[in-house]
Amino acid sequence: MNDIDDAGLRERVADAIRRAAGARALPGASAGPHGVERDALMAELRSLLAECDRGLPDDPLRQAVAARLGALTGSRWADGAAEPDRREAIRLLRGARASRLLAPDAHLDAARDLVALLLGPATHTSFGGPGEDTGAIGLGGFSQLLSVCRPENLGGAGVIEAIPEIRQLVEEVGYRRGGVPPDVLEKLDLMTEVSATLTGGDTQGLAAMAQKLFAGDLGLEEELGPMGAVIRALAPLAKHYAGLLEADGAALPTSDGGPPAASAPSDEEHAGPTLRSSLAAAGAVLSAPDPGGRIDNWRDSLALLTEMEQPGTLGRAEFAQVAARLGDPEQGADPGDQLLAALGTMGLGFRAGRPEDFQEALRLIRAAVTAAGPDDELAQIVRGVLPGLLTGAMLVGGSLQDREAARVLLEEIPLPGVEPRDWALSGYPRSAGLLIASQSTRILMRVTEAAEAGDEDTLEELVGDLLDLLDTCGIDDEWAFLPCYVLGSAHLALASLTGSVDSLRNAVHYQEQALTAPNTPSAARSTLDMGWAPLLTLSSYLEPSVERIQEGIRRTRLALEGVPVMADQRARARGAIGLALDAVHGLTGDPAVLDESIRELECAKDELGPSSRASVAAVHWQLAEAYGRRDREADDLAKAVGYARHSLRTTADEVLLQQGVRHGLQVARTGASRALAAAGWAVRAGLPAAAVACLEEGRALVLGAAAVSATVAERLAERGEHDLAEKWRAGAPAGAAGHDAGAGRPQLLDAVLGGALGTPELPSALRRRALELLRPAEEDEAARRIPDASELAAAVGRAGADALVYLLPGQGGADGSAVLLAPGRPPWTLPLPGLSSSGRAPLDAYLDAAAQHATARRGQQRWEAALDTLCDWAGEAVLTPVLDELALWEKGIAEAALTGTAATEPAPQPVRLTLIACGNLGVVPWQAALLVPPGPVHGRGRPQAGEPDGRAAGVRACELVVLSYAASGREFMRSAGRDRLPADRGQALVCVPGWDLDGAEDEVLALADTYYPDAALYGTLMTRELSPVPPEGTPGEVLDLLGAGDNGCVALVHLACHGVAGPDPATSALELGWPQDTEPEAGRLTVTALLDTPPGRTGEAGGPLVVLSACETDLSTRDHDEALTLTTALAHRLAADVVGSRWTAPDVASAVLMTVFHDRLASGLAPPDALRAAQRWMLAPSGRRDAVRGLTPELSRAAAELDLSVPFAWAAFIHQGNPGPAGRTGTTGGQVPARGNGEPRR
User: Fold this and answer.
1) How buried is residue 239: exposed, middle or buried, by Cβ count under 10 Å (0-12/13-18/19+)?
2) What are the backbone angles phi and psi of residue 256, rounded to the nearest 5°?
3) Considering the entire predicted model, what is its pTM?
4) Checking DSSP bridges between strand 1084-1086 and strand 1069-1071, what pairing results, if any?
């Protein structure tokens, strides 16, 4: 080449290099040419490079062209990640630098580009899969990660071999800038160790490398961006397995496929639930020349583990696909893979809100245990995993059956104080944490139960257990947030029960510790962060601060930006924000804050979907309360009612899903109080029909669920689901997964760990499957829907009653009201100021006196005085205005013949009212309410000439009205439509007097002698020798008499026994006889047993009269609105009429009233009329009472001597059931032998 040509070439090269300035092999670099311009310049540089090779082969200019072409090629790789571009750029830059002819600045630029290119596969990650979130690493990212870790000669990306070169390049660049920082050198040394380990088969080096890599102080996770999530996820696992490798001295095969220094442990020796092949096997996979499908399996395991630790690492579809592959033995899954797949499937269940995923996880666990064998360590891990699986299933749409089964399993977990490391298993790096989680969950269940029971002593003991647990694990443990959270809950429960400021302060302290625990897993962190708004709102009760609450709201809003790990997580977070804003509104009174709260809650509602069932009721109720409080706009109250009804319907569905009364009641407890509030809004809005609907949707939910459940088996059978129908009748979960609460070992655990055939099922699976199968059916919807106001009014007319009356206590400072339904009229409301919170003072005083009745000194006198005052208030404040509104005074006075004038025409039918008394109004004996009629009357409850203080004479409500009670309108309709059985079905008299019912035997024998000579006798009768000896009167025998067996029921069952009212349906019971060789507990017939008793197979539409003559059989010490008393339970399905008592009446007075009651039955009166007649007899002066043939001389003498007119003596007894008069069917009198288990008396 001549000088002219040489000058021209140099000029063209200089121009091209100038135009290529700024090009860098860095993702996102903006300098330098791009696109078509860059491609044209690269072609030009390649042509110039060829010319330089011919004319200037040893000239520095030739190397400058190669370096610029390499930079441009690297720039195109950075934009498009084409692997050929990366490799070509590396070749060009390496060659240019090796010539040592580059200018110093160009030489340094080439070094920088080479570092980026050599590390490229590790940093240039394409995120997500098709259609997935762009923030996800995706399976492609994990495949790339594994490619980075494999030697180049085995198909890897060449990064491993390049690490020494990268170190040199970094040192060179750092030297020009004044030296490489020590932390960077430390990381470079570590990377060099990685290279030597994976290329040389040095297992012990791998262990040491893992310890350094995951020590937590190198900061690699921050610098590696998305791949840092992998490091954070695998850190504890890698440290654990690295320790195992160091101890075992295992070795890896070398990169050339040569034999390792020592063989790695086999899968049979160390099967496990996560990456059980350990780092040794991982290294073997990465270093093996022909790994087959193992590399994909390892990728799936790595991806699933990382996703579980760092939600959002995988896209949603990829998450499901990976879990499915790892659980499939046909795709090479071993027991450890299957357990990992089960854990992943549980995670899917939480995110999607599907109980079916937890069922699939249960199947995978069973498959893993079966493959591994019951003696494998895996079986012990399963014991720790199952409670979490069951609890999760309950949270996403299962039932309390699942939680109950989890609790039984948790009882087998070691108690607090057991060192987690002593319980940890060598093959499972997180088994110790599993113990902490299990212990915390068990204690949380106990805290919840103690709080519901008001048990302060147990709560204090549980606080001590939690402090021991926290001391054991330490605040730096990754699971420490759990005992801290439960400690906060326990102290909050104590603060609620005791009002202790110290307990509230402790609650805030430990909840804050839970939210700020340093090493909490990322998956838990996203849910904990939702708690900032509630926590800082709670702290404002200690030191009111709007700013502090607003800070909590800000932090909870940040949680909305994360990847949710629960289906309803965003709705829960917005609900928490709504509660906090409500607190701000309470502190400031600013209406704009309440508006903001409503907007937030509307957003929460919009985010609810089919998989958010756990939050539907809560969010809709929050919205209802917010609109009810605002009440500014025209439709605020209507919206409040609408959202409240949606919440109540959801709660009713949840009650229906529960197995048994006890679980149903736990879910239903909020329904009744919410129904009252919603009905109050409807009354204020002038919507009486909506008020009725709210009350019906929230009251007596357990009774309503029992009614639906009673027909499920038959409807399943009609659909051809005979096997499912039989399992429903048996009340046991389908398959082998039943849980026997009374067994020492849960059946579910046996089904998973044992050899039971079939697939184990969740305890809730049977009910969920059956109800979902029936839900679309029109007949099911008809069975489950509530009656509307017009239907109820029509039922009132058919029953021959005058009105159905709902009594509503006022909420807050508002007045109470009555909602009235009468035949032929739309519903309407009556304001009742006496039912406001201040107006109900006599009721509050009565409840206080009743609570101290049995223990306080002079408690009886105080209680009787409070009862008298209560009856005065009930008449003046409630029933008097109700009768005024209904215009029934004239009818009632005329029928009762209280005017003192001779009747000139036949007396009218009596006034008939059925009361549904809401809230604690259900404890009032309304039949004893003292009424002052609008005119002179001859009453029996007061002196005829008026009161000494000048007040008008009064009469008791039962003198004017036939009063019946109902748990709800739905129960009223059911009772009103049930026929009474004819007398020829016989009678049964049961006497189990216990230790203090001295007159019970005399009562029963007198009834038998006078009215029922052929009745079947049961129980303990000591004063007569009977042959044969009567049966004991056990719960089973009594249930048979009520029609639960195959022989049908009798017309009348009189029970002279103890009845006990308790705080839950398992303790409210009749004390009956118990079979021989059993404990007295076998004689308890509880509310739970009554409602859980399946109907008999005779298909009878009618029912007997049941008389409960002693003790507290129509009283609940809790859950008044659920109306779960012995009386309501019997009236629900087993009886047409029930007479029960609200307190223990004196023996003599009770015996007298019962005798008169049966006498009036024998005369042909219906049960409600007969009870009213007996109570009027008690009110009459002794000289004006009719003769009663059943009264013994002793009782007649006592009746003449004692004052039986006081409410304490007679007002305890009430009627529930069919409110109608006699005549539509047979009466309950008669002398035909019973068809029960007992023989006629001889």
Assistant:
1) middle
2) -90, 10
3) 0.82
4) antiparallel
